[in-house]
Design goal:
The complex is a heterotrimer of chains A (49), B (230) and C (226).
Chain A lengths: L5 H43 L1
Chain B lengths: L1 H26 L13 H28 L2 H32 L8 H22 L3 H27 L11 H4 L7 H45 L1
Helix pairs in contact in B: 1-7, 2-3, 2-5, 2-7, 3-4, 3-5, 3-7, 4-5
Chain C lengths: L1 H20 L1 H21 L3 H29 L6 H7 L4 H31 L7 H26 L5 H28 L9 H26 L2
The chains are: A mainly alpha (49), B mainly alpha (230), C mainly alpha (226).
Chain lengths: 49, 230, 226
């Protein structure tokens, strides 16, 4: 394998993976946040009953 | 059930993505002129396909929403648009890195690049509009209309660039060149395999996002319920 | 036919109320002139340069002015809930939209006609050499702005940050129209007729107008009725 612009290839692959990973993490964070909200609400409604 | 499907898709997609990364870095043949940088292409083009498919899904879902007024379609539209934006960002930025080596500049005001950027901005505007409307029905209706306009405008912009001169490389896949083999078959095959991998990943994103929309609706309903109890 | 009559009534109403208060005309006109002045400081252009980007410059001004005008299009009806009355009137959503779009078109076109001579004086251009073609192209471009702008104004009328959201949504979508109208205006400003290879831009502009007008008329009812 020739190595003329191998650093930029790494940048490219890193960006491709990185961006998708960041989006996945963001999705995960939002998921946790939503689940927490839902649990709090459910508990609140239970208590009121 | 939905959770299990997502998990199963993940179990297929992640090993495939890792295997593809290995193949792309070490096994596919070198390109004569460009050197290793061309390997970016294995992400650049599949990411574009995924994004384009997402935008198309969003259009269909938006039309269906207006026809049936079912919140389900609105959820599909927003999930697909958001995922499409993520993949379009991969497409744009890998393209910029390739352009830095091949053209010597990060960004050329080349029609295709311009088009991809406009597309990104237009669909980002869709998300902005959504975040500005609180009432779910109103939000679903207005953003569905905007999505239809967005697709129309994006399609015309696409046509406009064909009349312009482009320095972006032309099609290389044999399905686009009428059977002429422009690149090594091993390369082309790898391209398709990675397209499948990214499409799978996109599908997972859409499904996860879709579930979040459902949970959000459940939360809103519970809020109203709790409010009514007071 | 009734749709057109209703549209004419709405347009007349809008124009009449605008000419009584003159709130958007005055502000938009002075805004356009100020922008034209600022551009001349920013570039200090020579006549050759103007031949290259005069059309672009002019349309930047018109695009800003257009956003200001269409912003008021539906926002004007917010006080006293006039918009609800209009929607529940016998006029259909399509008529309402068309009337408002025509009113915006007339206002914007008027402002453009004032801006052109000012532009000619500031930048030392003999812009009237192919005035027929120029006015035609201006009309087409203005309709693109007025039509898409009015529709998006209806879409964003109830939002917080309406003034910001409208141009954010509008400009990226208008790019094909703005692009072609800028190219055409550039050539027409130099006094040449439209060259053969530029008819694609004319076709693009007309196609854009037809498509956006159809879509807007078709979807206006959906957006306006809540």
């Amino acid at each position: 394998m020739d190595e003329r612009n191998i650093t930029f290839m790494f940048y490219g692959l890193a960006v491709a993976w990185g961006l998708l990973a960041v989006y996945a993490v963001l999705l995960g964070l939002r998921d946790r946040d939503l689940t927490k909200q839902l649990d709090t609400l459910k508990r609140m409604v239970e208590e009121k009953k | 059930m939905r959770r299990k499907i997502i998990l199963a898709l993940g179990v297929v997609a992640l090993p495939l993505l890792l295997r593809n990364l290995y193949v792309i870095m070490f096994l596919v043949p070198d390109e004569m002129e460009q050197g290793p940088i061309y390997r970016i292409f294995y992400y650049h083009l599949p990411a574009f396909f995924t994004a384009a498919l997402c935008y198309l899904t969003a259009l269909v879902a938006s039309v269906l929403y207006l026809a049936k007024k079912d919140q389900k379609y609105d959820a599909i539209a927003v999930s697909a648009t958001e995922t499409g934006l993520a993949f379009a960002a991969v497409n744009l930025i890998t393209g910029m890195i390739w352009g830095r080596i091949s053209w010597g500049i990060w960004w050329a005001w080349d029609p295709r690049l311009t088009w991809a950027l406009i597309c990104w901005l237009v669909y980002f505007g869709y998300l902005m509009l959504r975040s500005a409307i609180d009432d779910p029905t109103e939000r679903a209706k207005n953003s569905a209309v905007l999505s239809i306009f967005a697709s129309a405008s994006v399609a015309v912009t696409w046509k406009a660039i064909e009349w312009w001169r482009t320095q972006h490389p032309g099609p290389v896949l044999s399905i686009r060149t009428g059977g002429v083999q422009k690149i090594d078959p091993a390369m082309e095959q790898m391209l398709y395999v990675n397209t499948v991998a990214l499409l799978l990943l996109g599908l997972i994103f859409v499904l996860v996002r879709l579930r979040q929309e459902e949970v959000q609706r459940e939360i809103d309903a519970l809020r109203r319920y709790a409010h009514a109890m007071n | 036919m009734t749709t057109l009559r209703h549209a004419a009534t709405i347009a007349a109403k809008d124009l009449r109320s605008e000419f009584r208060t003159k709130e958007s005309i005055n502000s938009t006109l002075s805004f356009s002139v100020v922008i034209l002045l600022l551009f001349s400081f920013a570039f200090d252009p020579s006549p050759d340069m103007i031949a290259e980007f005069g059309g672009g410059l002019l349309w930047m001004v018109f695009a800003f002015a257009g956003a200001l005008i269409v912003n008021r299009s539906f926002a004007r009806e917010l006080p006293n809930d006039c918009i609800d009355v209009l929607v529940s009137s016998p006029a259909s959503g399509a008529a309402l939209f068309l009337g408002k779009a025509v009113a915006a078109f007339v206002l914007l076109f008027g402002i453009e006609c004032v801006c052109l001579p000012v532009f000619g004086v500031f930048y030392n251009i003999t812009w009237w050499r192919s005035i027929g073609g120029l006015l035609g192209v201006l009309a087409l471009g203005t309709w693109a702005l007025a039509c898409a702008g009015t529709f998006f104004s209806a879409l964003t009328v109830n939002l917080r940050l309406r003034e910001l959201m409208l141009p954010m949504l509008l400009y990226p979508m208008l790019i094909p129209a703005l692009l072609s109208v800028m190219m055409l205006t550039n050539t027409l400003l130099t006094g040449q007729a439209i060259p053969d290879d530029f008819t694609v831009w004319l076709r693009l502009l007309i196609g854009f107008n037809v498509m956006f007008t159809t879509l807007s008329v078709y979807l206006a009812e959906t957006v306006l009725v809540r």
